[in-house]
Design goal:
With 224 residues, the chain is of the alpha/beta class. The chain contains eleven helices and eight strands. A five-stranded parallel sheet has the order 2-6-1-7-8. Strands 3-4-5 form a three-stranded antiparallel sheet, with helices on one face. The longest helix has 17 residues. Bound molecules: cytidine-5'-monophosphate.
Length: 224
Amino acid sequence: MRKIIIAIDGFSACGKSSTAKMVANKLGFNYIDSGAMYRAVTYYFIEHYINPSNPKEVEKALDKIDISFIFNEKLGFSETYLNGSNVEGHIRKMEVTQRVSEISALPVVRRRLVDQQRKLGKKRGIVMDGRDIGTNVFPDAELKIFMVADLTVRAGRRQKELLEKDQLVGLPEIKENLKKRDKIDSEREENPLRKAKDAYEIDSSYLTLEEQVEKVLQLATEKM
Ligand code: C5P
């Protein structure tokens, strides 16, 4: 079977990452969470008080940022490292989530991260999820998935995930954040969130995680 690139795009909290992780494990592919890269940059900007509207400051900060992924055998997936430190515990917090779309819309940030994402996919055999993977990062991906889901279902799932990390956030706040991120992600000038022409749409509102994974695996097998 040949090694292919599977691009999974879609709105926030549609189940992209969970699906991508499981698909990668089943196929023995690498999983790359491109959102984690934007989150790591955002976390760095918050920690170092970087002003996103100052291009020089942004460029300088980006030169100091090194993002890598290290596979955690126990968890069965890769974790995100920023300048050598594991930042998984920080990058999913609400303070990062609230700023990440604004920082991701900066063209200079996108160019840097897209370059790195393309390098990570050079050998193929990867599943990458994000917002512009099928349209921009890997327009030649063999399989492109576009995930959608009902807003209330998405907010409920995100709330449960946050609770598992001991963060209690109300549904209205989560819904507002999802709507705001969807809007910024879809309306930004540089590579906005779009469904690629050749992408398969999966509505995950009423599917279990296993059903989502099964659908993607079926499509992947046809391409391999
Ligand atoms: O996937 P996740 O929700 O963790 O992504 C966080 C944010 O990173 C998104 O809301 C979006 O603003 C940004 N992002 C992006 N392009 C990607 C992946 C994520 O702009 N390829």
